[in-house]
Amino acid sequence: MNHENESMNQGRRDFLGAAAGVSAAAVAPGVFLHTPVANAAARTDPVTDLHRWGLLVDTSKCADGCTACVDACDSENGLNLQSKPHGQDELKWENQRAVWIRKVKLQDNLTGHVTNLPLMCQHCEHPPCVDVCPTGASFKRADGIVMVDRHTCIGCRYCMMACPYKARSFIHEQVDHKLTRAPRGKGCVESCNLCAHRLDSGDISTACAEACSAEGHQALIFGDLKDPMGPLRQALAKTPSRQIRQDLGLNTGVRYAGI
Amino acid sequence: MATIMTKGVLLALLAAVLGVGSAAYAEGVGDFVLPSSKAASLENCVEPTEYMRRNHFELIRHQRDETVYGGIRGDSHGLSGCVSCHVGYDDTGAPIEIDAEGQFCRSCHAYASVEMNCFDCHATVPRGEAWNHEVAAAHAHLTGSAPIGPTAAER
C-alpha cells in the first residue's frame, strides 16, 4: 500500500498516481486502514491472519551456558516473581515452577557434538493443545499465536499432556506478585505467547530475541512468516531449517536451523 | 441584552445547584474514589459515573475478550485502565493494592457484598504495564525486532 518496496518501479507508481488522480484521494482513507502500526501505539482493531508470527532459532549460534533469552523472558513475563511455597522441596519446585523457555542441550553420543537450543511453545498451525482442550480455553489467535484464555481454563492440564514440546506450565499456587502485562493465577496453564503484549502495542519484537541480539549471539530471529521481505523469511530463505517433530505435521511457527 | 444575561446567570446558578445536589447524592450511596488516586482529579470515568456503577463489569468483561482474542489493548475499558486510574497512593507515593481494605475496588464490593476475583490473577497496582510508546521506540533499532510491514497479502 503506502509502504511499497524500495525496489518498486517508480515509473509504475507515477503512472498509477496520474491515472488514479482524484479517485486516489477517495481511496486513501481506506488504504490507511491497512497501514502498518509503525508508531508503536496499542492496537484498537482485532488481530488478523495477514500476519503469522514466528521465530527462527539458529542453534549453531546458541551459546552453551547462556541463559539470556530465558532470563529476559522471565522478567518480561513476571516469571521471576514466582516464589517457592514454604517448605516445598527445592528440586520439586524447580520442576514445577512455570517456565516459558527451556534451554535444552543435546549431545550426539557417537560424535560428541553438543547442540544448545531454547525450546518454547512452537505456535503450531495445528496445535494439539487446542484440539484436546475441553473448554476452548486453549486457542490460536488469528495471527498464529497459540495461547490460553485463563478466564475459561479449568486447569485440567490435558494440553500439557498433548504438547509434544513440553512447552506449558501449570500454576500450582497463588502468585503474590504479578505484572499488569502478565496476569497469573493458581489453577491455570500458561505458555509462551510470543510477547503478545508487545505485538499488540505495535512493538514487533520478543524479549528473548532482543536479549539474544543484545548478547551478540543473534541466534533468535523473530518476525512475520507471511512477509517474504521480512527478516524472518529472509533468514529462513538463506538457512536450511526444520521443525522439531516435523513428522507430526503441526507446521510450527518456530523453526530451528542446525539440528 | 440584560435579560439574556440575567437568564444566563440564573441558568448557571441552577446548574451549580443541581451539580452540588448530585454530588451530595453520590456521597449518600458511597463515593469510594480515593483522594490520592488519579481518578479523583477527573470529571468522570470512561463512561458516566452512574453507568459505571451499574455496568463496569460488563465493560471489563467485554474488553477482556477483545484483548485476549483480538489483541486490542488500545481501548480504555480494560482492567489495567481501572487499576492505573483508581489505585490510591500512600504518603510515600507508593501505590496501595486496589483490593486492600478501604481501597477503591474492595470498599465498594464490600458495601455491595459482591465477591471479586479479578485480582486472584491480575496485578493490584500498576506495575509492568504493557509495552508503552517510549520503550518501544527505544527498542526499535535492535536487530531481532523488525519494523512491522505489510505482508504480501496487503501489498
Automatic annotation (TrEMBL), chain A:
Q: Which Pfam families match?
A: Fer4_11
What range(s) does the 4Fe-4S ferredoxin-type domain occupy?
53-84, 144-173
- Keyword RNA-binding part of the UniProt annotation: no
Source domain of life: Bacteria
- One GO MF term, please? 4 iron, 4 sulfur cluster binding
Any idea which UniProt keywords this protein has?
4Fe-4S, Iron, Iron-sulfur, Metal-binding, Signal
Q: Which CDD domains match?
A: PsrB
Which NCBIfam families does the protein's record reference? Answer: DsrO, TAT_signal_seq
The cross-references to PANTHER family, in alphabetical order and at most eight, read: PROTEIN NRFC, PROTEIN NRFC HOMOLOG
Q: What is this protein called?
A: 4Fe-4S ferredoxin
